[in-house]
Amino acid sequence: MSFLEIRNIRKKIGNVEILKGIDIELEKGGFLVLVGPSGCGKSTLLNAIAGLLPPSSGDIVIDGQVVTDLHPSKRDIAMVFQSYALYPNMTVEENIAFALEMRGVDKAERAKAVAQVAKTLQIEHLLTRRPSQLSGGQRQRVAMGRALVRKPRVFLFDEPLSNLDAKLRVEVRAEIKALHQNTHATIVYVTHDQIEAMTLATKIVVLKEGMVQQVGTPAEIYNRPANLFVADFMGSPAMNMLKGTVVAGGISLFGAKGVTVKVPPSVTASLPEGKQVILGLRPEAISDEGSADAAASAKADVEAEVTIVEPTGSDTFVTGKLDGTMFTGRARAETAVTPGQTFHFVFNLDKAVVFDPETGNRMG
Ligand SMILES: Nc1ncnc2c1ncn2[C@@H]1O[C@H](COP(=O)(O)OP(=O)(O)O)[C@@H](O)[C@H]1O
Ligand SMILES: [Mg+2]
């Protein structure tokens, strides 16, 4: 049985349906990331789980108990917000101990619990400070400490890293990951950042306009996106989308001078000849001749005009153009090519996916 069940949750505010029937299950100890663009309903769903915003219909079930109508304080859930929401006039120690004090836990036991959490989060040296004397990353750690000390059944995080600068975000992200690995806490985490979703989750739910687009492991979402939206949203640089027509033995790409791209027979078998399709290929599946994946079972050589060259230090991203459609490949750092030249790209087709342009859904 799942530890957390979200059953057909709908939320209407005024005449607008913000959540349109969400079903999600999470096992105990799982790390669920709700990811999607701003305004897709992530916070609304998280608030429904927390009990801060009642759904219009549907149920939230935790460990077999329907909690939909239960007051937030009775759900045994702890939430960490983007804004931290620390009490400014209390020390770090008092902030962390506050929930236990409210629960009537005695002083010695509180001190012990705070010490343990402070050690886990490496904030022992900050216990006597007030929030105003802390950096953003330290405040975020205190906010997590306040949630951790309660040992709740479920942790909810709403974009906890978005107020931190880029370097700190990566550090705290790794700390949250380690925290999950060490405590086996059950976590629901909201972000609009697909890298956070990929790095943290055991299970990702991609949301768009109040509807679930796909549920899967990070690898499933990345390698087998259910539709064009998921394919485009997850991954950076984004998945390349090339137009073509199904022909005998593969896909003929528009503008690729008669090159037939051989996709796995399981994919082409289901495609009628003459049908227009979109071939999806990640940038790492497109490279230069010298660094093409030797282990690939199906490859295609494609000559195309180069429009942009972007050295990153470790690699060089080379963008080409086929029949007006741009695509980007990841080539060796020392690749010498300039815009305007024709470049020999090598496509690794083992991980190619094919979409139906009419429905946007993956066909194979
Ligand atoms: N109290 C409210 N009244 C009206 N519309 C709201 C309210 N809260 C949220 N919304 C709308 O619901 C949608 C989803 O919001 P939200 O859950 O905050 O999205 P996210 O967290 O994914 O950015 C948005 O279009 C937002 O404008
Ligand atoms: Mg939000």
Features:
364 residues, six-stranded mixed beta sheet, binds adenosine-5'-diphosphate, Rossmann fold, OB fold (Dihydrolipoamide Acetyltransferase, E2P), alpha+beta, binds magnesium ion
The helix-strand sequence is: EEEHEEEHHHEHEHEEHHEEEHEEEEEEE
Continuous helix count: 9
The 3D shape can be described as elongated
- The third-level CATH topology of the largest domain is Rossmann fold
List the helices and strands and how they pair.
Layout: E1 4-13, E2 16-26, E3 31-35, H1 42-50, E4 57-62, E5 65-66, E6 77-80, H2 92-102, H3 107-120, H4 136-148, E7 154-158, H5 166-183, E8 187-191, H6 194-200, E9 203-208, E10 211-216, H7 218-223, H8 228-233, E11 240-247, E12 250-253, E13 260-261, H9 265-268, E14 276-281, E15 286-288, E16 299-311, E17 315-322, E18 325-332, E19 342-348, E20 353-355
Parallel strand pairs: 3-8, 3-9, 6-7, 7-8
Antiparallel strand pairs: 1-2, 1-4, 4-5, 9-10, 11-12, 11-14, 12-13, 14-20, 15-19, 16-17, 16-19, 17-18
Helix pairs in contact: 2-3, 2-4
The protein binds adenosine-5'-diphosphate and magnesium ion.
The site of adenosine-5'-diphosphate has 10 residues, from helix 1.
